[in-house]
């Protein structure tokens, strides 16, 4: 039972009960319900409820404004209502199929650290470049330093994703970090355990044959290397979310602080090593056997398939099924065709991102393109995949097709790799047969990479459109950014929001905005829109513009205690208003003589929906016709 359990019960009851809830999400300050019947909701009861700021309806959502502690209330509402927060079957079309959900989970887990991921990818690439030009020796202090700085996120990926996946699945963040750290603990990796003698072998003489080096609680644990892996940690944290939820139900609240993480970590890590990790290993072994059979059937077909699926295999960590086969080929045959078939994949991915740079309208995503291209040239494509192409889906598919075309060329001309050397641009030399001084395979790879990149770039430019951003910015200016002007609803002196005497406003708990110290006791409409909320005490009014901007005008501090005295409303809730229409009058002198401040916060309560909210330069003698806020979409 959480801290806000009682509040959650009241909210659920007053939105019409749990059977009336179709889905629930939350933003920075509000619970966003989709209700089956909004008529069943008791708006007045919710608005007057302790712990609820107000209620708004917008975009098909029934929104209960809470404040900056909304995630805690959200978790308790989910528990009280017995829902997951995901859409019900009626909303399945909005959530998408399993594939779309999986992409959403993976991209959501990578989104928070894309900048750092791109930076580390660039460091890895530059280190490879400097080593190639022999600016310093491999193994030198400089090499070790840059390797550590560039490889840190990639090597300890489960720890980083442990944090972001915990946020995604509503698990304690430090619990997620602990689970990720356990997966990469050095002495439990297969590379470390493999130095000893197996105590037994599971599934002997099958493609699932697995040596066992340790037992835990008497059960055999199949060793695996989890460093740099992605999918295992996501699955384990997802499992941990269910363990944590169960633990909170059965463990007394008095000792939940340490016992819930204890059992969540213990059970999740155990099952991660016992079941989840080995399942990935089994899939890897099965894929390896499948590609071997495919190569025996048709080397060209195998090259196309490897090229097409290589990046998808990388996402799930299943590309490791092909690495052992390549190493065996190199040691027994002196050459390999598997790695040669996958070589164009990173270049196709890079070309797609370069094309996206010219078509993206989202400024933040656009800024990620150049670092992703730089790291991609050096063979590090994680920033490109997880940050850009995979979330957009079609660009990722185009890169897969481009890689398949590159694989087809390598298969048709019999290109081979002769060493496992550099990645990206430094991998071309891997295809030189030094024994016979033959560079034909390297020439083939130049052709394959060139064709794959040209196809990927052109196809992205022709067939991909940034629909998601376009839909959000239908009303745009010539620079591609929609903006909405909020004129001052009150005359007086404007001050930054952080100067507000009320800390809830000052800390931005309800959104961004400004504070006005009124000189005229009158509030007018700052835009064309609708009166969404007129408080019974008339001390506060909620508006929504015709473009969806939600604004709260709170006249004075603690003036709710006046119970409407010294206030007069000129419009009713639900009324349509035009910019400049009189909304509320109030007696400044009388309010101050009653011991209350008339300091008036003006808040954009759906601030999270906008790119930026810019305050006007003018601060003294603000008039109703003056621009107060410029809101960018």
Structural summary, described in words:
This protein folds into 4 domains: 91 residues, Glucose permease domain IIB (Gyrase A, domain 2), CATH 3.30.1360; 142 residues, no CATH class; 175 residues, no CATH class; 150 residues, Glucose Permease (Domain IIA) (Distorted Sandwich), CATH 2.70.70. Helix content is 47%, strand content 15%. The chain is built from 23 helices and 20 strands. A hairpin with a 4-residue loop joins strand 13 and strand 14.
Show the helix and strand layout.
Elements: H1 5-14, E1 21-26, E2 30-35, H2 43-47, E3 54-58, E4 61-65, H3 70-81, H4 92-95, H5 98-110, H6 114-132, H7 141-155, H8 157-168, H9 173-183, H10 190-193, E5 200-202, E6 210-216, E7 219-222, H11 231-250, H12 256-297, H13 299-316, H14 323-332, H15 338-342, H16 345-359, H17 363-377, H18 382-392, H19 394-412, H20 440-463, H21 467-472, E8 483-487, E9 492-496, H22 503-506, E10 512-518, E11 522-524, E12 529-534, E13 540-545, E14 550-554, E15 567-569, E16 576-577, E17 582-586, H23 588-593, E18 600-604, E19 612-615, E20 627-632
Antiparallel strand pairs: 1-2, 2-4, 3-4, 5-6, 6-7, 8-20, 9-10, 10-18, 11-17, 12-13, 12-16, 13-14, 14-18, 15-17, 19-20
Helix pairs in contact: 1-3, 5-8, 5-18, 6-7, 6-17, 6-18, 8-9, 8-11, 9-11, 9-12, 11-12, 12-13, 13-19, 16-17, 16-18, 16-19, 16-20, 17-18, 18-19, 19-20
